[in-house]
Amino acid sequence: MFKKVLQSLSKSLSGNKSAPPPPKKAAKDKNLLDRVTKGPPAPQRDAAPARSTGGGGASILSRSTATPEELCEIKPGMSKGQIHDRLKLLYRRFNRSASSLDASTREEAERMLDAIVQVREKHLGPI
Amino acid sequence: MADFVGIDLGTTLSGLAYLKPDGTPEIVPNADGERLTPSVVYFDSHEDVKLVGSAARDGGDPDRTIFQIKRHMDDPEYLVDIDGKKWTPAEISALILAKLKRECSRIIGDVEEVVITVPANFNELARKSTIAAAEMAGMKVKRLVNEPTAAAVYYAQTQGVKGNILVYDLGGGTLDVTILNVAPDSLRILTSEGARHLGGSNFDELLLGAYSDQYRKQTNAELFSDERHRRRVLQSAEDAKKMLSKLRRVNDTVANDANSGIARIDVNREEFEASIRPMLTRTVMLVEQALDSAKLKASEIDEVVLVGGSTRIPRVKQVLETYFGKSPRTCGNVDECVALGAAIFAKTSSRIQEVCNASYGTLAMIYNAKTKEEKLANSVVIPKNTVIPCSRTQIYQTSEDNERVIEVDITQGEDEDPRYVDVIGRLTLEVPPNRPKGCEVAVTFSYDENQRVRALVVDKESGRSQEVAVSYRGAGVLSDEELQRRTKHLRAMRIE
């Protein structure tokens, strides 16, 4: 049912030319990453939290007025269970990003982790 | 010569242990008489000497003193500049290891081969840098072992824990949570999760903030204006933190270095606990992540064991007791059990089954024939928590007609979304011309016992292949030639 076609970062940018040194972080390659999804809307699991991919408008993280709920994409009416699941997904993602090789990604991850904790304490109660 | 030696190369403290002939592990003190050596290096400006340990921590010019270098082992660009010479994190760590080797060898005989512990979430680069540091210090790394695994080995041998065990390791700089199953004759790791830069040092900084606020209120002046004084107050804050684990209220007296007056600092446990609550929430989320990864519920954990100096904080124990509904187990030497466990591990590693700590894969366009969805994704070849050593293969197709060079990006990370994984290397393979797209390519990843990864790409039609071990580039990463050169240099250094 699935077909997997190799797709390197450099080829998405420069066709069949030989590869340049590997970039440090996938997030820097806009052309490729603009194609993360094509087709039906991605399910919630794949919904990236508002985050800069190197172009296409300001990241919500760069807006100082964004609330922790906005950063975590917590919508009004979400149940505690849904919030918990969403926060677990984001925590796993950004905790890993906090160990990224890319310094700006690490910094961004720390901000997201702070927001995740704030949302958790507010909606699910303090530990 | 000591046969079974383990080293805990910690963020704030490091220790070396060996296995005595009767099979019990023992910490070997350094030449200063300390069981654990502060992981601090001082570069003296008057003499050609590198101080490591308490003397380095308590003495000199902060501009020439390196603290917590372990936090930078995973940063390919990080360098320390001392008198114009650039030092990599691996070199600084090598100085710490060299002191341990040289001084402990006087007691237990030469130390040639060691097991070194690393945080469970140390990435490829940090692991490679740790091995390089040991080589520069004159030791061969028999194995790297994750810190919570080493601690669990210690608890299993000395404290009699068994069943599903969750190890909560909150040290000076990192948090690791590992779940494992301990049986009478085997120890099986189920998962290891880690959080970078979450440990006692963060709590010290919060208390330092409280000191600064109170000083400002009382004297209308800043508590410190330079790094030297900041370090001194930070040490006081750390002492206060330790006292708050025993007392509910602690008083201290501090002054700045500009004669702005003396202030009486008053900190209490309640306020301290409130200030660290967000960090403890993070630790609980990591516990939840580990339980999810192991597919276990909190009620299925038989024992929670504590490791690391920061687990002495009463609130840490309370939070875990509330979460699991049972008191966590603690031993008397939470600072030493990682090194002690590493020494046991050096002898018993064959009975211990470990898993890989990260997912490895490549980037691929995934077509779903049923839904017609096309999506660029991180295609995982070796999933996190696969038993190691291991080797896994996936078949992919070429993307274009007349593709002459097949490129495979090596990714680290489990997220399907490529924006949240690291591309840690690339493998290229030249293939014959004039072929249509869709030719099959086998991508194999192998993962060894030291949690290092290799990649092999085979073009199935031509049979051509290419294999590489992942290597990093960056100012803070030494080439093999440079590593050899600096090893020679380091071995001639005076390290006290």
Task: Characterise the protein shown here.
Chain A has helices at 9-14, 30-33, 68-72, 80-97, 103-124, and strands spanning 2-6, 37-38. By secondary structure, chain A is mainly alpha-helical. The longest helix of chain A is centred in the C-terminal third of the chain and has 22 residues, at 103-124. Chain A starts with a strand and ends with a helix. Residues 13-58 of chain A have low confidence and may be disordered. Chain B is of the alpha+beta class and 496 residues long. Chain B folds into three domains: 1-159 and 333-352 and 474-496, Nucleotidyltransferase, domain 5, CATH 3.30.420; 200-273, ATPase, substrate binding domain, subdomain 4 (Actin, Chain A, domain 4), CATH 3.90.640.10; 360-463, Sandwich (Substrate Binding Domain Of DNAk, Chain A, domain 1). Helices cover 30% and strands 32% of the residues of chain B. Chain B contains ten helices and 26 strands. Chain B has helices at residues 54-58, 89-108, 124-136, 147-158, 200-219, 227-244, 269-294, 314-324, 337-348, 480-491; strands at 5-9, 13-19, 25-27, 37-38, 40-43, 50-52, 65-67, 80-82, 85-87, 113-118, 140-146, 163-170, 175-183, 186-195, 249-255, 262-268, 303-307, 352-353, 360-368, 373-382, 390-397, 405-412, 422-430, 440-447, 453-459, 465-469. In chain B, strands 1, 2, 3, 4, 10 and 11 form a six-stranded mixed β-sheet that branches. In chain B, strand 2 (13-19) and strand 3 (25-27) form a beta hairpin. Chain B is globular. The mean pLDDT of chain B is 91. At the A-B interface, strand 1, helix 1, strand 2, helix 4 and helix 5 of A face strand 14, helix 7, helix 8, strand 19 and strand 20 of B.
